[in-house]
Specification:
By secondary structure, the chain is mainly α. About 85% of the residues lie in helices and about 0% in strands. Helix 1 packs antiparallel against helix 2. The longest helix has 26 residues.
């Protein structure tokens, strides 16, 4: 698709869009960035997931929280209580991901995102 600097520039522009969606919808940018890297830029699934973690974990979380915190839309206590589970889950999930072949990992990721989208649609249809 793209090569060299052109590819890096395209990835940068795409990541700006991912950042906007992440801040706007409160979703993990990885849910957007991983498929974008795989489908749009030809990354292998594991490489896309690892790359998105580097880009998203600290910078996005720290910067995206501010507008929500300023508007009193953050439950600090609940957020802090989730940290140990997320850390443990991330370690276990990363180890498990390394055991799956790339094609199987891509299928699992797609099924997970599809499942989350279906839950959102059901919730909207039920008026929640």
């Amino acid at each position: 698709m793209f090569e060299g600097r052109t590819q890096l520039a395209a990835i940068f522009l795409a990541s700006c869009g991912v950042g906007i969606c992440s801040g706007l919808f409160g979703i993990s940018g990885g849910a957007l960035l991983v498929p974008l890297l795989v489908v749009g830029f030809g990354f292998e699934q594991h490489r896309a997931q690892g790359t998105s973690l580097v880009a998203l974990v600290a910078p996005t979380s720290l910067l995206a929280i501010w507008p929500y915190y300023s508007a009193h839309l953050v439950d600090i206590k609940v957020g802090l209580l989730m940290i140990p589970g997320i850390v443990l889950g991330a370690i276990l999930g990363g180890k498990f991901a390394r055991t799956l072949p790339p094609k199987q990992m891509r299928r699992a990721f797609a099924a997970f995102i599809f499942f989350l989208g279906a839950l959102q649609l059901i919730s909207v249809w039920r008026g929640r």
